Amino acid sequence: MPKKMFVIFGVSNILWMVFAVSQAIKVDMFPDESKIFAQIGDSVSLTCSATGCESPSLSWRTQMDSPLNGKVRNEGTTSTLIMDPVSFEDEHQYLCTVICGAAKLEKAIQVEIYSFSKDPEIHLSSPPEVGKPVTVTCSVPDVYPFERLEIELLKGNHPMKVQDFLEPSEKKAQETKSLDVTFSPTDEDIGTALVCQATLHIYDDDSPPKVRKTTKELEVYKKMFTVEISPGPQIAAQVGDSVMLTCDVRDCESPSFSWRTQIDSPLNGKVRREGSKSTLTLSPVSFENEHFYLCTVICGQKKLEKGIQVELYSFPSDPEIEMSGPLVNGNPVTVSCKVPNVYPSDRLEIELFKGESIMMNKIFLEDVSKKALETKSLEMTFIPTVEDTGNVLVCLAQLPIDEMEFEPKQRQSTQTLYVNVAPRDTTILVSPSSILEEGSSVNMTCSSNGLPAPKILWSRQLSNGDLQPISENATLSFMSTKMEDSGIYVCEGINQAGISRKEVNLTIQVAPKDIQLTAFPSERVKEGDTVIISCICGNVPPTLIILKKKAETGYIVLKSTGGAYTIHRAQLEDAGVYQCESKNEVGSQLRSLTLDVKGRESNKDYFSPEFLVLYCASALILTAIGMIIYFARKANMTGSYSLVEAQRTKV
Fold first, then answer.
1. Which pLDDT does position 603 carry in this prediction?
2. Is residue 23's pLDDT more than 60?
3. CA distance linking residue 289 with residue 311, whole number of Å
4. Longest dimension (CA), the chain
5. In DSSP terms, which residues pair with 589 in a beta bridge?
6. What number of CA atoms fall less than 13 Å from residue 153's CA on the CB side?
7. Is 14 exposed, middle or buried (0-12, 13-18, 19+ CB in 10 A)?
8. In the chain, what are the domain boundaries?
């Protein structure tokens, strides 16, 4: 094959492949239109997608290669051009280019811009009056392209004027176009509506145009009107309350209202219109509302104003009487009379009475006045007495502002005095006695004087000195006493003013028992030995212990120490019967033993080391026995429910 023909054949194959590939690729545009209209300020998205190609390359441009002024977002086989917000710079034909290998395809869409976002506005040159010419202006703001705008003015259902704006604009800009009509209102025009209708033909001839319209009712007048403001030229308003100012118009069917302060401060209130009335509600009233308010009414060409002064005060609650503590006879106490949330506080007066006698008064004229709610008080100290009981404290507060009308201008609080008397003259009556035999019954009655009547509290004193409460009855009774009931009982009279205390020692006596009479080291000893004869009485209060030795003429009382009698170097005559007698006021008990002393083989003095040891041991044992006796008796006296040694307590 010739070389030239081979080249032609190769080129033809390549063109055929490009044609085949391009036939397989498809480009779609959304919106699927050749032209779209976008309003200035809106957001527009153009989406281009490719099918039939796994990895296409997508790009955007304008036909005039102007800047895109938008954001491009590519996702796989899709590319989106976003213009937000749309402006005049975005009015172009946009091309989406898709390249897949050697193939290249494009698709175009035209974006045209318009502006028609606001309804027409109707303005009158003056309030319409019967027979007086008035010019009506119907304007359409921010229009583009205005050469496609048409404005029509109607009165009721009758057209007054239609105007087109066919001249082309010299620049791309939003413009306000208007239509003017002058006419003289008649009686028939009262209540008639003016209608301004604007039409923007931005689509093709067979597409519907965009239409906006505004309606305004004609308010035609022929006569004078009056304005009344209530509740009057001046009102006193309490801080925190709700106040309604009403502006009422007569002889005007459709008045125009407005409210303002004389110094043009914010109203800080809600305005509401109800027919021929307009109300300004201040709720809650605060210091920002203390102004002179003006209600302006326009009816036709007439204008009237009425004003009202709002003055503030605060006197919302009665005084509060407080005491520094309970009233106790003879103890100074401070009484406080507080008046909360007062304004203006420099006009306040406070008086304090006891019965009909004035105790103190205070005027706050010298205080620096400021726009704030303040709590003012009067304080004084006095010494209450019993005679004050039943008297009434009166706190009288006054806010005498003569130039302001409000009620009440005085408030008062009362408090009846109850003077407490601390408990005193606390006594305990014990029947039959504070010293009793075990098994007896006893009543202990406590009384205490004071105001209010003291509360009675019985307690038992523990060994560590603490008090253990046991009863709140005036009488503490034991039906069958036991030795464990012995102890110190405390009665307390308690009220708000103080405490008074009295105590009684209750002793429960038991006849002696469990006597132990012993001889140490034994009841059988040898002549010359040392013998200790001891007597112990357990489980009883302190008793009298007597050691005796039987003789021919009776019993001889031995000189014992702590219930123990020591015989040094026993002799034959020391043998015999020994007796221990334990007794108290309740009864007595006896115990006896027989001591046998054997003689030695010779009468010579006998002294041996063994005797010395025995003698020393006896001395130690004697001391130990004495201590045992002491602690045994001490244990009997100081058990968990035992009493102290006192046997007779005068109450």
1. 47
2. no
3. 8
4. 184
5. 582
6. 20
7. exposed
8. 3-114, 117-217, 226-313, 320-413, 421-509, 515-637
CATH fold of 226-313, please?
Immunoglobulin-like (2.60.40)
How much is the pLDDT for 13?
38
Res 541: pLDDT:
61
Q: How would you class 605 by CB atoms within 10 Å of its CB: exposed for 0-12, middle for 13-18, buried for 19 or more?
A: exposed
What pLDDT does 361 receive? 94
3-state secondary structure of 504: strand
- C-alpha dihedral sign at 605, 610, 613, 615: negative
The half-sphere exposure of 357 on its side-chain side, counting CA atoms within 13 A, is 4
Quick count: other Cβ atoms within 10 Å of Cβ 116? Answer: 25
**320-413 architecture in CATH?**
Sandwich (2.60)
Please tell me the distance from the alpha carbon of residue 171 to that of residue 129, in angstroms, as a whole number.
Answer: 41
What is the predicted pLDDT for the residue at 15? 35
The matching CATH number, chosen from 2.30.30.40, 3.40.630.30, 2.60.40.10, 1.10.455.10, for 3-114 is 2.60.40.10
Q: How far apart are CA 523 and CA 597, in angstroms?
A: 8
DSSP 407-456: S-SEEEEEEE---BEEEEEEEEEEES-SEEETT--EEEEEEEEEESPPEE
At the second CATH level, the architecture of 117-217 is: Sandwich (2.60)
pTM summary value: 0.45
In CATH, the number for domain 515-637 is 2.60.40.10
Tell me, what's the pLDDT at 21? 45
The reported pLDDT for the residue numbered 4 is 33
Distances (CA, A) of 370 to 182, 287, 343: 58, 11, 9
Q: Six-digit token pair at 60? A: 């955007």
Secondary-structure class of domain 421-509 per CATH = mainly beta
Contact 280, 257 (CB under 8 A): no
Residue 524: both structure tokens together = 């059988």
pLDDT at 300 over 70: yes
| Rounded-to-integer distance, Cα 167 and Cα 608, Å | 163
pLDDT in tens, 349-391: 999 999 989 999 999 887 666 789 999 999 999 999 999 999 9
Q: What is the pLDDT of residue 201?
A: 85
Q: In the prediction, which pLDDT does 644 show?
A: 30
**C-alpha distances out from residue 22 to 12, 100, 106, 134, 594, Å:** 15, 8, 11, 70, 149
DSSP-based three-state secondary structure for 611? helix
- b/e burial code for range 430-463 (CB count within 10 A of at least 16 → b): beeebbbebeeebebbbbbebbeebebbbbbbee
β partners of residue 363:
349
Q: Which string of b and e fits 606-634 if b means at least 16 CB within 10 Å?
A: eeeeeeeebeeebeeebeebbeebeeebe
**The 193-200 sheet, strands edge to edge:** 158-164, 149-155, 193-200, 210-217
Q: H/E/C letters for each residue in 182-228?
A: EECCCHHHCCCEEEEEEEECCCCCCCCCEEEEEEEECCCECCCCEEE
Q: What is the pLDDT of residues 227-277, one digit of tens each?
A: 999 998 999 999 999 999 999 999 887 899 999 999 989 999 999 999 899
- Residue 102 CA to residue 114 CA, distance in Å, equals 40
pLDDT given for residue 397 in this prediction: 96
Q: Identify whether the C-beta of residue 382 lies closer than 8 Å to the C-beta of residue 388.
A: no
Of the CA atoms within 13 Å of residue 177, those in its CB half-sphere come to: 26
Do residues 533 and 567 make contact, with C-beta atoms less than 8 angstroms apart?
yes
pLDDT number for residue 185: 86
